[in-house]
Hints:
With 496 residues, this protein is α/β, with parallel strands linked by helices. 38% of the residues lie in helices and 21% in strands. The termini are far apart.
Amino acid sequence: MPENFQNFIAGEWVAPSTGNYFENRNPADWNDLIGCFPRSGPEDATRAIASARRGFVQWSRTPAPLRGAVLQRVGELLVQQQEAIARAMTREMGKVLAETRGDVQEGIDTAFYAASEGRRLFGRVVPSELRNKWAMSYRRPIGVAGIITPFNFPMAIPTWKMFPALLCGNAVIFKPAEDVPHTGHLLVEVLLEAGLPPEVIQLVHGQGSVVGRALIEHPEVPVISFTGSTETGAIIGATCGRMHKRLSLEMGGKNAMIVMDDADLDLALDGVVWGAFGTTGQRCTATSRLILHEKIHDRFLKMLGDRAGTLRLGPGLEERTEVGPLIHEESRQKVDRYVGIGKKEGAAVLVGGSTASGGALDTGWFYQPTVLAGVNPGMRVAQEEIFGPVLSAINVGSLDEAVRVNNDVPYGLSSSLYTRDVNAAFRAMADLDNGITYINAPTIGAEAHLPFGGVKQTGNGHREGGWEVYDFYSETKVCYVDYSGQLQRAQIDTYD
Ligand code: UN1
């Protein structure tokens, strides 16, 4: 009998009001059933919100350094449990162990950063324009934060959102992606073990269209943070706009790596293989376009074809595996559909191009690492997010053209440039229209203590991580204290 996991609502592990559960299976072996998780209804979300409101009253009055101490303990527990959680995560979503260990590490880094922020969370004291008057700003918690997260970084992304939200004094309702409920469960267990007051965190499993929607549409959830598709983000944005909610969106990407004729090609090769096929291409930061200077175009594609063709596919739990499966059948079909579209548009399949089979691969959602050559910048495979191990190679004649091609897509998350010309690199950093640019490194590899996010259809102007996210999860309050004992009118009595 598979285990039935529960929601965590109002300080207790409880069954969903619907009585319904969904199966969670290993994408590398669909015969491996991890457990069944609640398919919750709107009532579960409503109960969670009522409880989180109570949690908020208590937590928002807890001094920030003490909130930080809880997050310090969270980080320590994640260190102790890193290996176990990484294994559970690989089993649940497929990426290789080295990557799931890194995913937990990102959670650890985020916890320790948040813990230290508890002793900063700076406001400002600034001079008033009037005598005997103080002017200052400080941060207040907002309320209940609804956190809706994707499958590809089951630990890092929830912690990017949750830990700063908690440190700022908010209560959190967590709705993990349906593909990774087990990692969500383990994370909430860690928070509770660390001593977070139970009503400050609620875990409600289920569908985005039911649970996510209930959070977004409820007036007592004033802050929403969502990472996922641009289409879903647009729907969430419409509702949050209508209800005047604070909303952070992290959505699609179509990230490019540019390799110039003066680049270290071996270095660029390592970079593109990691950028395009790490996490089986299922990152919003994945390298999905390769823009090659014409002088090295053929040579580099040859090197890439040779390397990509030898990548070892398999279950991520096997240490030898380099590329794990896709998350589910629908995703594999989508990837295959895009390869078909690319071929129809005139691209050539340099390597890969179909599902992978044989032995252990027959019971998982495997797809061959694929490189499409001869891609034109306007083709759909060069414009649309595929979210799989498919890389589109584009030939250009100059850096200016490469920058234009990079910028000419609806998204703007990350970009990468390989060159030895420092002047060209600095010029390009200014011109590449992305939230993140890497020089001589691939499009992935954001660090937890720097702001993360993108421009255009990738986001709505907010950043996760780093110092900026603390602005998102707090309300600025300004206080003026006039100790002059008389009415002083700003702007009017100032220059008397
Ligand atoms: C994502 O791509 O979905 O920069 C998040 C990176 C990771 C986080 C990526 N630190 O690739």
